[in-house]
From TrEMBL, chain A:
This is Exportin-4. Keywords: Cytoplasm, Nucleus, Protein transport, Transport. It is found in: Cytoplasm; Nucleus. Residues 975-994 have a biased composition (Basic residues). Residues 26-92 form the Importin N-terminal domain. The lineage of its organism: Eukaryota, Viridiplantae, Chlorophyta, core chlorophytes, Chlorophyceae. Its main location: cytoplasm. Residues 975-1010, 1053-1090 are annotated as: Disordered. Belongs to the exportin family. One of its GO terms (biological process) is protein export from nucleus. It comes from Volvox africanus.
TrEMBL record, chain B:
It holds the Pfam family eIF-5a. The keyword Repressor does not apply. This is Eukaryotic translation initiation factor 5A. eIF-5A seems to be the only eukaryotic protein to have a hypusine residue which is a post-translational modification of a lysine by the addition of a butylamino group. GO terms for molecular function: ribosome binding; RNA binding; translation elongation factor activity. Residues 85-158 form the Translation initiation factor 5A C-terminal domain. Keywords: Hypusine, Protein biosynthesis. GO terms for biological process: positive regulation of translational elongation; positive regulation of translational termination. It comes from the Eukaryota. Belongs to the eIF-5A family.
Amino acid sequence: MDLDAAQAAVERACEEFKAPATASAASAVLLQFRSSPGVLQACRHILDRSHSLDARFHAAAALREAVVREWAALGPDGRNALRSYLMSYLVAHSEDPAMQVVRSSLISALAVLLKRSWLELEEADARMHHHRATFFSELEAATSSAAARGPSAAAAARRVGVQVLEAVVGEFCVSTSSPLGLPLEHHAKCAMDLQDHFLQDIFRHAVALGRAAAAVHDGATCAACLSLMTAVLAWDFRRSPSSASFSFATPQTLAARAAAAAAAAATTATSGATVTSAVAAAAAAAAGSSGPSAGADWASLLLSPDTLDWVAALLGQLTAAAAAPGAPVAARQLVAQARGVVVALSSLSSDVFPREGAEVLTRPGGGVRGGYLRAVLRCVVAWVASPRQVVAAAAAGDEMPLWEGCKAILALAAAHPPRLLEDAGNDVVAAAAAAGGTGSGAGARVQTPTAGCFLALLQALTLEVIRGSCCPDPEQWMVECRDMLVEAWALMVQRDCSSPLTLGLSVGALGPPSLPGLAEGAAAVFSVLVEAAMTAAGQQAADEGEDIDVENEAAEAAAEDARMAEAAMLARAAPAATFSLLAAAMAAAQQQLLAATAAGLAGGEVWAVSLERLCWLVRMAAHCLADSGAGETPLMPLPLSIAVEGGGPAVAAVEGLTAALLGLPALALQEGAAAVLSPRLMESCVWSLARWSDTYLFPEEAEGLPAALVAAYATRGSGQAEAVVDGLARLAATCLVAFPGEAELHGMVCTTLLPVLSRRRPLCTTLLECSRSWGELCGAFAGRTPQLSNGLAPKLQRWLSQSLCQAACGFPSADSPAGTPAAAAAGHYISQLLGPTAAEVRALAARPDLYDMTARADVIGTLCGMLEVLRGGACRGAAAAGPPARAAGWGLISELLAPLLVLQRAFGDDPRVGALLLKLAAAVVEHHVGYLPTDQAHMLMSWVLELLRQYRMGRAARVSVAAAAAAAARGRRKAYHLAHSQGHHHLHHHHRLHQNSNGQSGQRQDGVSGSAFLLQGGEDAARELRALLQLLTHITQRDVALAAAASDGWATASSAGSTPRSVNMSGTLPVLGAGAGGGGSSRGNTPKGPGVGVTATVALASAGAASACPSAAGGSGGGLTVGDNESGVAQVVLTGLDVLLPLLTPELLAAATAAGAGAAGGGGTGGKLARLLFSLLAYMMEVHPHAVVALPGPHFSTLLSCLAAGARGFSLVQQQQQQQQQQCTADATASGSASIANGTGGSAGGGGCTFSTSVLTSTSTSTTTSTSTPSSQPVAVSASGFDGVVVQSALEGLAGLAKYHHQSLINGGRGFGAHQAPAAAGGGPLVPYLVQLLMQIVLMGDVGSDVVELAGDALLPLLQSDPVAFSNLGAALVQVRAGEVCVCVYGCVCVFLSSSPHPPHPHPPQNSFTSSTDVRCSAIT
Amino acid sequence: MSDHEVETFESADAGASLTYPQQAGTVRKNGYIVISGRPCKVVDVSTSKTGKHGHAKCNFVAIDIFTSKKYEEMAPSSHNVEVPNISRKEYTVIDITDEGIVSLMDEAGNTRDDLFLPKGTDEAEKLAEIIKENWSNDKEMAVTVIKSMNEETISSVKVINETAK
């Protein structure tokens, strides 16, 4: 390259770039320059000679890129030369301020250069550190060489050196590194090595240099050093014994960490006006304070007084000056950076600190930790020493000192015992007050600094901030500061413990705080919080009249709840004071409400304010009294129960608050209360009482409760507990009846309060025996009172029904087996509750004008409700209430089986009813199938079969309409007639052809432009299919039940063996009564006589449904009987799968995926659908392989194709995968259509082919959709999990099948028998096909070792049973041309060798492999 | 018990009314509602309150099932709204004229010639195209006719039998 010409070109382009007209052409030139090969020389030339700063900048940027790109070409000498060149260039130009941007590019190039070469020569271990240390010594030499040019040049050179080090730290830190084109492991190793060997020296260097610079008032160097210190403190420390065994972070965790850092940066950005990068980094460090942090080996460095004292001094000198108006920007930034370092230092995790005995920590000075705390607090206290002024300053716009002070205080409170913190704080405050320096503001003086003056300062600060934050529209930082301070208090209260010996324990919440002043401080903070909330309630009520979006409100309420939980911790620290305060506030608000109502002001402002206050207070009271107890047995909060055990005022306080809490619903139950109390207040009441009841009302174990509370709320006899229980039941009923249309309130009652009431047996017993209101509620429900039926959403009817039925566990005989007289009560209760509903369902089904009814909106609505009532009551609720209730539930359901089929025929087309029917069926199976005697189980199985068949009848029509519409949409662009010759299967074929020829873009557009009804239909269908799959999955519980029964020795189902599995293996295969005339289904593949193999009913069902002929289903309904000596599980599930699989169309999966992407949680219905499907398949293949193998050919190959598609997993990186799949699909299409054209498969065989290909296309479609839809982010995330589970399940299924085959051959059976490989894969014997499939997965896929292991499980039995198949495959590999073999082997080796997440592209080997196997196939045939 | 059931459904005998009152709070997404005298499918429901302590209101966004026109309505959730009765009936297609008149036959063998191919919206045109396509290929079809508030249209089609050519 002509260097001068290049220089001229770049300079010209830089000039032209400034003019808009020529800018684009110039930028093209510059980009081309950057990416041109051999650009390094030109860069150096320009850097050295050009006078244009722009040209130099572009040269520097090009150089930075070229270092990575041309690394290999550079050679060791070139690299060294480049490194020295860069160093000397940087030092030489260190003083020129205009060169700033050029310098930063070159600095980062230098860092990249170092990192890229870091791990080279690794084998020469002895030389390694030398080689790495060389860089630092060279840097040192280069930066100190400038000393000859005078002090300012020397300082500038030093500064550059510090900047280089900062760039190195940033580059080596995994989360901030730049791409080098190397595996992630390289980054991780570099980071580990730097951390182990150099990071401390870098930090030490920064401290020393900074200290020296501060001494000579060199602000710029100080800033650079502070920045470097912050970068080191923000390093994500990891500890591992050796870098060799270092397990590098997965991309997910990296991404998560980056996201966390970004989030932290974002919060900083929103909160502060003057956010520097250093502050953001410090924020990120603090955000991860619970995560990795420097270890104990850093203690001497970080905790040494030298580290911080100059920063503190600097802050002391500069703070006042920087705060003054007109202070230079540089000074302000320096202060901000210094503060950032202090905050980062205060966020050290407790790992850093050396273990010190309690006596060391508690004596004056406090050992190392005490010294550190004093040093840090000296800075922090100085920022917030006069709370009022600080808050005022913050309000005036300078909020950073306050915000960072709060941050540091929170970090310190999280990492250190409050006692140490207070000791250190007291010393600092006292010293500051004595010195009368900057720190002694008004706030600190007013609180006389005797004992606890640090706490007093903290309290004063907190109070100021809380007061400041309850203005009408507080700023974000104000809210954050408040939350941080309250959290700090909560942490201190929690971690305070009396014994100094337990200081090491991080969580010592053993009782009320013992530190003098802490409980009082917490109480004071809490009372101000209450005060602020009361004020806020008044302000919020004032903007009444506007519409409030309920959804936003819900999100806010969740955040508010989290805050309340923290505040509750403060309150529990001093219950005597705070609880009575709360109770008094409630009484006051209640008085206010009553007064407003009496004065006729209901609806007015006073009324609204008092309601709002009550809402807050009642929630707060519940938070104080009880924890959420999610997933645990709720217990009284420990601090409270310890306080109450101590007796005294605490008992009275708890009782008083409880009484106040219970008093509010008493108000609600008065006549006409509904007009006065708002739905929202009732909601709060219901929520609070549910939480309270969960802990205090007839708990399962009353041991944790104080005697007084046990007597009042957990003992029957006195009447008080009964009255409370009855009151709660009445409250629930009142809320449901007296507040029509308030769906949220109803939801709270049905999903929160009632489940709590019906969960515990003692409570249920009380409800059943002593509560008249509960009886009335049950009566109203049983009688289908409009408010409790049509007035509630179906879902809530289900919850209501479930809770009411579940309360049957309160009958004393609930555990006795069904049939005994003692069990009658529970059974009677259930029948009473649900009988009328069941009768109504029966009556509806029996109506002669049923089909007219399907048009009636009211009938549909009522039916939905009734189905949900049955699902909640007769299934879930009854099952949870013990055997008698379960039996009663089944009794009701068993009479409804036939009517439900009738209803499905009539209403199945309505998506709502259809889905609910299937869900009901799934629930029936889930909760009853495991407990039924044999004959009834068979009845249920037959019913399920019939349900499936009917479903398919209705579904087939709808899917074909959907497919037709989709096909027509595509047909506009593509030649439609291509597909028509394929007759019935034209839609699938068309779909494939279209996809193959038109590629992704067309596909995507179709997906997006798919009409609304199509998508809608898809969502409905996906929901229904999921219910169906769940139904099938639950059926397999029957196996477990039978196994348990058999092992218990009272087997009724089978006498032939100990478990169903051994029964199956012994060959007594199940027989479904043969339905007549399944045309052409008498295949000769029943090797073991009539008892084995194809059941004609299955064949009939599939054939009948495939042709969508109504008469076939009608005929088969009667022909179905299940064999006597078998569970029938396999038959039902396999038939069900036969029904289901053809319905899993591409459109459906696409719609399901899209629907899932829309949902908040990601994951998606499509993913769940696939996972459910494949885990069921795996189960069937493992447990019932005999039944699977005995299936008719087409059905078997359908299942196999599905498994194969799952095992292939399509788990590769998505973009790579699409092409591959299209390749696959094209092959499948060609062979599939060929076989159809030849008529080999017959009509049923054609069905199988169609499906197998449709699975292929469907999977690819779902993938393409997931990558192409606008909201693809969550899908992409979920897809990785989705793949793993699916592949694993599919491989397990194949392994089960292979094991069966092997076992069967050994035992003299026929194994797979006459089954052939799926026609889509070219037919032929099955075992070679499977071997090939598995080899392909292992060799060609980018799979992990777990997948290989699973595939091996499947492969071994196959190889053992048919070694020829494997040797054929090997021979075929050798036969093909040598070049292709090379490519293939290369591909394999690449896959095996690269453990990186970015493996070489697997396409070429894939193709060659396909072709090689084609060769093999043709050779065989 | 059987008395009870009779009471529930006899109050509004089949076909007696075109619509049925239902509490607004229980109308869900994908349900139906009458807005401005048109039968509509609900595509979105949101609830809101007047102030924090007011009663809940429901805001419906719904699409006319015949014209695909979008409507919005707001109602207190405890009040009743009208919900259209909707019937679907399946017919076999026996003829399609050039003018787009479709001759249909129901299960009982009764014929009718008063319906046109669906039109007016994108989906309807698409459906019509499919029907014509199938017809020209001699396929036997069943169509579903949706009827609500005295208005009818063909809403879907399925091929019920392939006639070999």
